[in-house]
Amino acid sequence: MTDRDYWRYFSKNESYSNLWEGRQGKDHTAQTLKTVYDPSPVGYQVCHYNAFSGFTTTGDNTGWEPEWYDVRTENIMPGNPTEGLYEFYTNPEKNQSIIFPMSSYRDWDSYAYIADTELMIIGYSWAAGNARNDDNYAYNFMFSRKDKNGYIRPKDSFYPTDGMPVRSVRNGSHTGY
């Protein structure tokens, strides 16, 4: 594209706006199907961004600690590792939790430079779904430890050309952890 040469990764694909979801068109409420483009093993698929919405009271991005369903370090049993991990409750009753590792990502416009490796206070995970109904912005789950000006962003968005970890779910289980 000569008029937007810098943004040459923008897609003009109008038939499938998100190849991981297998949704035809841009209807974000349509049934999701595993596609050949999904990097998950057989029987699993990249989870929809709604799977991460249960980690905040609002289901949306927040930097305000009272809206988080995170496990406080003082509540983790002695002997369990706390460095490099972030633990979230899976429901308001706080009787189950799930752990995510801190991770970095490969930045497309920095020649695949691995970002955020020095501090390891941030974590990322791709989610199926296009932010803004646009296939040039893909959803991801992003979080940061609260002792470092933290936040939980279940509906963060990045350019789909960046490389992040994927947390697969069983086919059809996209409603939350």
Task: Describe the model.
The chain has one domain. Helices cover 0% and strands 29% of the residues. The model has no long low-confidence stretch (mean pLDDT 76). The protein is mainly β and 177 residues long. The chain contains no helices and 11 strands. A hairpin with a 4-residue loop joins β1 and β2 (23-24). It has a 3-stranded antiparallel β-sheet, with no helix packed on it.
**Biggest beta sheet summary:** 3 strands, antiparallel
What is the topology, as strand order, of the major beta sheet? 8-9-10
Low-confidence stretches: none
Which outline best applies? globular
Helical residue percent? under 10%
Category by helix and strand content: mainly beta
Number of domains: 1
Q: What percentage of the residues does DSSP assign to strands (E)?
A: 25-35%
Query: What is the strand tally?
Result: 11
Draw up the topology in text:
Blueprint (H helix, E strand, L loop, with lengths): L15 E3 L4 E2 L19 E3 L38 E5 L7 E5 L3 E3 L5 E3 L6 E9 L7 E7 L6 E8 L9 E3 L7
Antiparallel strand pairs: 1-2, 3-11, 4-5, 6-7, 8-9, 9-10
